[in-house]
Each structure stands twice: as C-alpha cells, then as structure tokens.
Amino acid sequence: MTFADLGLSPKVLSAVADAGYTQPTPIQAGAIPHALQGKDVLGIAQTGTGKTASFVLPMLTRLEKGRARARMPRTLILEPTRELAAQVEENFIKYGKNHKLNIALLIGGVSFDEQDRKLERGADVLIATPGRLLDHRERGKLLLTGVDILVIDEADRMLDMGFIPDIERICEMIPFTRQTLFFSATMPPEITKLTEKFLQAPVRVEVARAASTATTVTQRLVKSRSKPWEKRDVLRKLIKQEEEDLKNAIIFCNRKVEVSELFRSLARHEFNVGALHGDMDQRARMTMLSNFRDGKLKLLVASDVAARGLDIPDVSHVFNYDVPIHAEDYVHRIGRTGRAGRLGKSFTIATRSDTKYVEAIEKLIGQTIEWHDGDLSTVEESESADEAPRRGKGSSRRGGRKDEGRERKPRGGRHHDAAPSEAKAEAQEEPAPKSTSRPAGNERKPRDWANDDARPAREHRGRRRNDDDGDTPVGFGDDVPAFMLIAAKV
Ligand code: AMP
Questions:
Q1: Ligand 1 center–CA 49 separation, angstroms
Q2: What is the DSSP string of 101-126?
Q3: Of 11, 75, 326, 458, most Cβ neighbours within 10 A?
Q4: Largest CA distance in the chain
Q5: Which of 195, 462, 172, 465 is nearest to 308 (CA)?
Q6: Rounded to 5 degrees, what are φ and ψ at 418?
Q7: Region labeled Disordered — which residues (predicted)?
Q8: What pLDDT is stored for residue 418 in this prediction?
Q9: What CA–CA distance (Å, rounded) separates 205 from 319?
Q10: Is the pLDDT of residue 480 over 50?
Q11: Confidence of residue 54 (pLDDT cuts 50, 70, 90)
Q12: What is the pLDDT of residue 313?
C-alpha cells in the first residue's frame, strides 16, 4: 500500500514524499481512510508507530476546505505535555508546507499575549495542553464552538497526569457534531469509559501492543548493590565500557529527585550530560532537547514523564538507572533505541529489591533478559548505617528489604549517601555542570501554576503514576534534626 491509496490530497502527498516516506505505517494505513471520511477513530498505538501523521495528514486534507475565524479554531489537538504539543506543531509544519494554515500552540511557560494574538488571527489548527487551553477559555479569549475535528492524543498519559476531568470539560464545550480522533497506547478502564462517553461509533485501529521490544535492541540486566552511590558507580563503569559504540544515550530514572542527583553526579564526573524533567521551564527543556538532538550533549538523564513521546531519532543506548515500576514503561524506554531497524543497546541496573519488577517486565515482553556480568546471586549488600541511602517518601516502594537503610542519620551535608571516595570528591567545590540548565530536582521553588500544565485541581487521581513532580517532603523531609533521631524510651 502507498500513501496515494489512502485518499490524501495531492498537497499532502507531495509533502509526505518530500519527507521521504513511501509506505504508510500500520496505524496510518488503518486510521487515515476512516479519518478522511469524517468518522471517529479510536487508535490504540504508542509513540514511534507513526501515530502523529495518522491524524495530521487527514486533518490537513480536510482543512483544505473552509477558513478560520477569529478566536474560533477549526480543529483542536490536546496533548499531555508541552514537548508533545511542540512536536505535533513540527509535524503540521512539515506535512503542511504546501498549505497556508494558521497554527496556534497553547502551552504553559510561554506568554499569553503572543498566544492571544494567534487566536485572534484565527487558527486552523490549535494544539494545546489542557490546562493552558482552559486558562485561555476562562479569560474569554477562545471559543470552542467552531471546532470540527478534535484529537485527544496520549490519553493514558493524560490519565496518569490527572487531566481526565479537564478533557471531559473540554469535550463538553465542543459541538457533538465534531469528529473525534482518540489515541492511547493502553486502554485502562477509565479511558474506555471516556471513549464510550465521547466517541460516536468509532473505528478501532490497534497496532502492536506496548509489550514488544524491537529485535534490534540488545537488552541486558546489570547487577548492583542498592545504595545510590553504588548504582552511580555501576553506571559510570558501564558508560565507559560502552564508550566505543556509544553515540548518545538516555538514562532513565524513576523519579525527578533521582534525575537531579544523577545529573549532578555525572556532571561532576565530567560526563557530557544534560537532564530533562517536568520542573524545567519550557525554554530550558527545548534547549536541552535540541542540544541532545544535535549531538552537543551525549547523555540525557530523564524521567518517564519528561521523555514520554519525544521523538529523538537514533539513540544508540538506553540506560535504566532504575528498573521501572510499571513494566510498560520499560517498553517505552527501550523503544528510544533500535528505531527504524538500527541497532541499539539497553542496560538496566537492577538491585535485589528490583527482582519482582524485573520479573514483571520479563513477563510482559515474553522473554528473559540476559545478565551483563553475572546475576544478583553474587551481590552482597553493604548495610552499614553510614551508607544508608536517602529515603524520600516512596523511594522504598519497590519492596526494599526490611533491613535495608532503615536507620537514618542526621544529614551532615548534601552528599551523605556518597561512597567515601565520591563523598570526598563531592565535598570539594563542585565544578559547574557543563549543560546549560540545571534540573530543579530537589530544589524546592514556588510553583508557577499559571505556567504549569498540571494544576492541583486536576490531580484527581491523588498521587500520579511516575509523578514527575517528585516527592513532597513530609515533616522535615531528609533534613531531620539530630535530636529527633534520639531513640525514644517506650
Ligand atoms: P510518531 O509515532 O508519530 O512519533 O512517529 C515516529 C517517527 O516515525 C517520526 O520520526 C516520524 O517522522 C516517522 N514516521 C512517520 N510516518 C512514517 C512512515 N510512513 N515511514 C517512515 N517513518 C515514518
């Protein structure tokens, strides 16, 4: 099958040919003909499958008739994160190069005025994160009654981020005569319910479940003791071992705090490293990403939420500094390498307390992952209290062993969890990290709700999965005064 068989307009076909794509991917072949007929589509597909073009191309074709009116966008695409929204905009620019369309991007971290001007001019395509969209609407700057096509992308991620009530509100603001194109990598019950409420007789298009990893990726588990400094040591050695093949790598951590700590540690050890997580402002995230894409940064430390859906071609290595708690996240992470038939490598650092998560991953992907250099049976844990790792709320949620790091010592300094040699190095003046932006990690800064994609009202699901906002300290957090640690007499 070719793109010409799908019913796309000549202008779109010419842009697709210029992009160098000859054959539609399965999600494109399945969704585009129905989308062109104006039908609702439920696409079950993850990033990397060509999902974006599967809605952008038919939308471009359909937008060729009619024109935009001030403040009344003709189409609306909802994305969970700023990066994804920006990526969709890039797709519209690439495939819409033969069209004269006004595209407005409404995301947090960018001034309202500029966005207002775009809305005022009349937008053919409005791409938005839910929070910023509602902010504009509440300011009276936006009417959604002219929207003919609504796209809800990465719906399961919206759920994770607590956006579902917002999505429901937005769906109710748009005439029911609209066409809805709905995409999700997985279909948890909440998402099924949403589709039942807001889609009309949708055509269901499902492509390869998020349970398969590319055969071009060599996957390995790497044993480690559980202390952070031990894991960091293992990671550094791995990176050095892989130096020859390593073009660039993403290093995944489970939590924002770890992203921050690991980034600082790698920078101190003079690796060419950057970091990506939800607390960085839009400009810093974009700069970081483009530096990584352009090869100016070799390593990128990231959390799942920050990295989800980012189109970073040709990553040679993925390192999982933490075993992901949700098995599907493993598949998403590994999917960053070995793309388009290229060879890739992934290394997952595993400690004894990760065993059940490793088992869940192996069950999901239907294969056992080989150990790189011997399995955990040879690992003995060092349990001296001096090395007790910092335990933020929830950091032991991987079922850490009972005897592990229970006792807390007052923190003498920031790096109390470092190995003796590393602690010494770290106690000295820290060299300025090389990258342009430091992750905010555990630096607590006042939250800018106006510029934030996830405001508290939306956090209906309580604690978010893979919460990118990290842990909120409880009581004294890690800075417990010494007198509080004196054993109480019972
Ligand atoms: P997506 O799933 O939309 O994030 O797309 C993943 C990657 O596949 C992007 O780099 C697209 O440019 C690329 N892509 C999209 N459609 C095709 C196609 N038909 N053939 C080859 N690559 C494609």
A1: 6
A2: --EEEE-TTS-HHHHHHHHHH--SEE
A3: 75
A4: 81
A5: 465
A6: -85, 155
A7: 378-480
A8: 36
A9: 32
A10: no
A11: very high
A12: 62
Beta bridge partners of 323: none
Can you list the domains of the chain with their CATH numbers?
Answer: 3-206 (3.40.50.300), 217-375 (3.40.50.300), 444-490 (no CATH)
Give tens-digit pLDDT for 339-368. 666 788 999 999 999 999 999 999 888 889
CB contact at 8 A, 231 and 206: no
For ligand 1, atom 23: residue with the closest CA: 50
Beta strands in 60-216 (DSSP E): 75-78, 103-106, 125-128, 149-152, 179-184, 203-206
pLDDT computed for residue 212 by the predictor: 61
Query: In this structure, is the dihedral angle defined by the CA atoms of residues 426, 427, 428 and 433, taken in order, positive or negative?
Result: positive
Range list of H helices, 321-453: 327-334, 355-365, 420-427
CB 125 within 8 A of CB 77: yes
CA–CA distance, 230 with 242 (Å, rounded to integer): 18
> Residue 157: phi, psi to the nearest 5?
-70, -35
Ligand 1 binding residues, C-beta < 6 A:
21, 23-25, 28, 47-53, 311, 313
Number of H helices, E strands in the chain: 16, 14
Q: What's the average model confidence in pLDDT over 379-396?
A: 48
Between the CA of residue 275 and those of 255, 314, 430, what are the distances in Å?
A: 12, 18, 17
Closest residue CA from atom 12 of ligand 1: 50
Residue for token pair 């130096």: 243
The tokens of 288 are what?
């970081």
CA dist 305 and 289 (Å) reads 14
Backbone phi, psi, residue 130, to 5°: -55, -45
Residues 349, 234 contacting (CB under 8 angstroms): yes
Residue 445 has pLDDT above 50, yes or no: no
Distance CA 114, CA 103 (A): 12
Query: Tokens representing 432?
Result: 């300025």
CA–CA gap between residue 455 and residue 336 (Å, rounded): 29
Structural contact between residues 353 and 400, judged by C-beta atoms closer than 8 angstroms: yes
Position 261 pLDDT exceeds 50:
yes
Q: Regarding predicted confidence, which is higher, 112 or 109?
A: 112
pLDDT value, residue 339: 67
Q: Which residue is associated with the tokens 């905010």?
A: 440
Q: Which of 34-43, 202-211, 321-330, 473-482 has the lowest mean pLDDT?
A: 473-482
Q: 3, 27, 84, 311: which to mutate for ligand 1, most atoms within 8 A of CB?
A: 311
Q: Compute the distance from residue 19 Cα to the ligand 1 centre, in Å.
A: 10
